[in-house]
Amino acid sequence: MLIGVRFLLNVLWFIFGGGFFLAIGYGFAALICFALVVTIPFGVAAGRLALYSLWPFGRTVVSDPGIGVGSGLGNILWMVLFGWWIALGHLLAGIAQCVTIIGIPFGIANFKLVPVAFWPLGRTVVDLD
């Protein structure tokens, strides 16, 4: 039963909640980062965000315990250049979606995207059991 609800919420998120457009935006950013060879780690993070924003219900983001100093420095650079405004966008979209009862699950999905959009390196998307 729970799997069916997650599937339904993911389909509704994909169509009405902005999942399709978020995935396209993050995917496009990932391609740009891959083209600029120096920014490949940011491309991996943007690709992770694209996949997570495409299908967020039934999944969560956890910290990877094996991250090093490079990921921490990359996260600081990401936060200064991109992360704060991406996270702010997800926060504002979540608040706007929570205004209606129907939009509350979509708002919660946007709130789930805030931490990973703010600090993406050294994180892994895992399925909930």
Q: Overall mean pLDDT score?
A: 90
Query: What radius of gyration results from the CA coordinates?
Result: 15 Å
How would you describe the shape? globular
Amount of beta strand: 5-15%
Reading the helices and strands in chain order gives HHHEHHE
Low-confidence runs: none
- First-to-last CA distance: 13 Å
Number of helices: 5
Number of strands: 2
What topology, given as strand order, has the largest sheet? 1-2
Major sheet = 2 strands, antiparallel
Say what oligomer this is.
single chain
- Can you give the helix content as a percent range? over 70%
**Helix/strand class:** mainly alpha
Organism: Actinoplanes palleronii
InterPro entries: Inner_membrane_protein, UCP028777, YccF
Protein name: Inner membrane component domain-containing protein
Transmembrane segments: 7-28, 34-55, 67-86, 92-113
Task: Summarize the structure in words.
It comes from Actinoplanes palleronii. Keywords: Membrane, Transmembrane, Transmembrane helix. This is Inner membrane component domain-containing protein. There is one protein chain. With 129 residues, this protein is mostly helical. Helix content is 71%, strand content 8%. Helix 4 packs antiparallel against helix 5. It is globular, with a radius of gyration of 15 Å. The two termini are 13 Å apart.
